[in-house]
Amino acid sequence: MKFGTKLIHNGNEIDKNTGALSIPIYHASTYHQEGGVGKYGKYDYSRSGNPTREALESTITTLEGGDNGYAFSSGMAATSSVLSIFSSGDHIILCQDVYGGTYRIAKEFFNKFDIEISFVDVSDLSNIRNSIKENTKGLFLETPSNPLLRITDLRGAIKIAKEHDLITIIDNTFMSPYLQRPIELGIDIVIHSATKFIGGHSDVIGGLVVVKGQELSKRVRFVQNGFGAILGPQDSWLLMRGLKTLKIRLDYQQNNAIKLAEWLQSHKNVESVFYPGLESHPGSKLHLSQADGPGAVLSFTALNDEIALNFMNNVKVAALAVSLGGVETIVSHPSTMSHAAIPKIEREKLGIQDKLIRVSVGLEDIEDLLEDFNRVLV
Ligand code: PLP
User: Fold this and answer.
1) Is the same domain home to 23 and 134?
2) Is 99 a catalytic residue?
3) Residue range 248-275: average pLDDT?
4) Is 239 in the same domain as 264?
5) 75 lines ligand 1 (CB under 6 A)
6) Is the pLDDT of residue 113 over 90?
7) What is the domain-level CATH number for residue 232?
8) Quick check: CB of 12 below 6 Å from ligand 1?
9) Domain of 272: which CATH number?
10) Are 190 and 227 found together in one domain?
C-alpha cells in the first residue's frame, strides 16, 4: 500500500463497534471492570490506555513503520519522555542545531540528573565518532535541522551508532512520515512535535513517538505511563483528523515552498536562502537520498536587520508566530522565538543571526504570497 492510501486505510478508518468512519472520542478517565476483582480488562485507567489515543498511536506506528507508538501532551513532553529512558552517568550526543526547547531541557534539566550531553556538529560524521565515549548511550539527530535546514547523513550516522550500540533518536517534525521515514533507514526512535504538520491546522499541541524494537518500546512505554505526560482523547482525535490530509497538504505546501525559495533567491534584499529543495543547498543531494521531498519550511537572511524587521512586522498574507506546519503561512524569528533559549553567543556560532527569518509555507495561492512578500521585503 502506498503512503497516501495508508493515511486513510491503516486499521483505524472505521470504528469497530459502530462502523462510524471516525474513531469516537472516549472522554473517560476510568473503566468499569466487568470481570470483577483481579480479572481486569484491557482498559483500566486512561493514563495507561485510552481507545482514542490508542487509535492515533497505532496509526502513527503504521505510518512510520515502527513497532509501537506513544502519544504525548506536546512535542517537548515526547522528547523529555524519550530522554528519560537514559540513566544517570549516561552520555548522549545531540546534534548542535536541535530545536531550542530540546537544547534547553538537555542543558538545564537533564544535566541535573547527571546525564551528560554533548552538542556536536553532526554534518561531519567524524565529529560523531570523535565524541563517543565509554558511557555514550544515545545519538539524537534532527535533519533537516531547525532553523537552518542543515542536513545530516542519516545512513552514515546510524552506521556509526550501531557500531557502538547507541540508541538512535530523531526529531522528524520538519519532514513528517510522508517525506521521511527514518526507521526504514535504521533509526530506533522517531519523535514528532505533532503540533506541526501532523496536526496541520494550528489548533492542537501534541507529541508522538514511534519505536522500533520491543525492548526499547517497553522503556518508552514505562515513562509514558509512569511520568504521565499523555495526550488527551480530544487532541488525539484532532491529530487523527489532521493526518488524513497530510499528503495532500504537504504536496501543495511543498510546491509553494519551492516557488517561494526560488523567488527569494533572486530577490535583491535577500542575502541567503536555506532550503534543501534548492540545488544551491549544500545538503540537497544528500537530503533527497534519504527523504522524499524538501518539505515546506525554509529560512532566509535578509540583507540587514532593518529589512528583516520590516518584513516580519508588516507581512499580511502570513502570520508572525511561533510554530510551523499549519495550513497558513507562518513567518517566525528564530533568534527571539524558537531559539531564544540558546544564548546569543551560541546562536551566532550556529549561524542563527537576528536577520534570519523562518517561513513555514502554507496553502495560500502562491501569487498572493509573492505579491505580499515583495511589498514588505524593502
Ligand atoms: N521539535 C521541533 C523541530 C519543533 O519545531 C518543536 C516546536 O516548535 C518541538 C520539537 C517541540 O514541540 P511542541 O511545541 O509540540 O512541544
Assistant:
1) yes
2) yes
3) 98
4) no
5) yes
6) yes
7) 3.40.640.10
8) no
9) 3.90.1150.10
10) yes
208 and 272 inside one domain: no
Is the C-beta atom of 223 inside 6 A of ligand 1? no
Q: Does ligand 1 lie within 6 Å of residue 290's CB atom?
A: no
User: Is there a single domain that holds both residue 147 and residue 97?
Assistant: yes
Nearest Cα residue to 312 out of 278, 339, 294, 335: 335
CA nearest ligand 1 atom 14, residue: 75
Residue 146 Cβ inside 6 Å of ligand 1? The answer reads yes
Catalytic entry in 15, 31, 43, 47: 47
pLDDT tens, 311-355?
A: 999 999 999 999 999 999 999 999 999 888 888 888 888 889 999
Segment 58-92, tens digit of pLDDT: 999 999 999 999 999 999 999 999 999 999 999 99
Q: Give the model's pLDDT for residue 97.
A: 85
Residue 76 CA to ligand 1 centre (angstroms): 6
Amino acid residing at 279: E
**What 8-state DSSP symbol labels residue 230?**
B
DSSP secondary structure string, 280-316? TSTTHHHHHHHSS---SEEEEEESSHHHHHHHHHH--
Type of residue numbered 141: L
Residue 294's Cβ-side half-sphere holds a number of Cα atoms within 13 Å equal to 28
Whether the predicted model's global pTM rises above the 0.85 cut? yes
Average pLDDT of the chain, as a whole number: 97
Are 228 and 251 found together in one domain?
no
Question: Structural domain of residue 347, as residue ranges?
Answer: 246-376
Rounded to whole angstroms, the Cα distance separating 11 from 69 reads 14
Total domain count, the chain: 2
Reply yes or no on whether 365 is catalytic.
no
* Catalytic residue from among 26, 99, 178, 275: 99
CA of 24 to the centre of ligand 1 (A): 27
- Assess whether 304 and 350 both reside in one domain: yes
The reported pLDDT for the residue numbered 341 is: 82
